Amino acid sequence: MNILETERLLFRKHSLADKESYCAMEMDSDVRRFVGGYPRTREEAEKRFGATTKPSDSSLGMWATILKNEQKYIGRCGIYPHFDAASNPIEGEASLGLYIAKPYWGNGFATEAGEGFIEMGFNKLGLNRIVTMVQAGNNASVRVLEKLGFQLTSTEERVRTFYNFVLENAR
Ligand SMILES: CC(C)(COP(=O)(O)OP(=O)(O)OC[C@H]1O[C@@H](n2cnc3c(N)ncnc32)[C@H](O)[C@@H]1OP(=O)(O)O)[C@@H](O)C(=O)NCCC(=O)NCCS
């Protein structure tokens, strides 16, 4: 069953057939540059892939992102629970995640996915706000968030510098 469909993309649960494409993305140093910083090994990628196929009855999660006209796995996108400092999910909030495979960058797919999940989060799930955190230097991601209407609310210094972005439900 599809979680969501947009003009060029559909979003569904991961299946075993997605494993190669999923692992290739996790092992790609350019994809991982600002998310984790280092490419995963095949073993690490496979282990993480296992978690994506676990059953779930929620619309919140990171979903296999399929380019409809090629029937191809091109990444994973979605909104997932946003946790507070005590690891409790914050009611009415979710985090946006967008990961597109490198050969497909620059075609507006992340923006299209983001628009779809914002619409779903606000209009179907009734969320109050959607948040996301981006590592400084990830300018493509910052640009996508700007296009989606997110506002920069704070900067956090950890081992690296991160930006917190928020989109409020205007209702
Ligand atoms: C960030 C990411 C999701 C963008 O995906 P995408 O499908 O290429 O995004 P879109 O095509 O919708 O939009 C990209 C925008 O960034 C711009 N852009 C690309 N590289 C850029 C750069 N280095 N600096 C500034 N802008 C850049 C593009 O020109 C485009 O803007 P435009 O439409 O105004 O021309 C993709 O690069 C990715 O998956 N990266 C690895 C994982 C990641 O970092 N995810 C985000 C985690 S917070």
From TrEMBL:
Residues 9-171 form the N-acetyltransferase domain. InterPro entries: Acyl_CoA_acyltransferase, GNAT_dom, N-acetyltransferase. Keywords: Transferase. Pfam families: Acetyltransf_3. Gene3D superfamilies: 3.40.630.30. GO terms for molecular function: acyltransferase activity, transferring groups other than amino-acyl groups. This is Ribosomal N-acetyltransferase YdaF, putative. The lineage of its organism: Bacteria, Pseudomonadati, Bacteroidota, Sphingobacteriia, Sphingobacteriales.
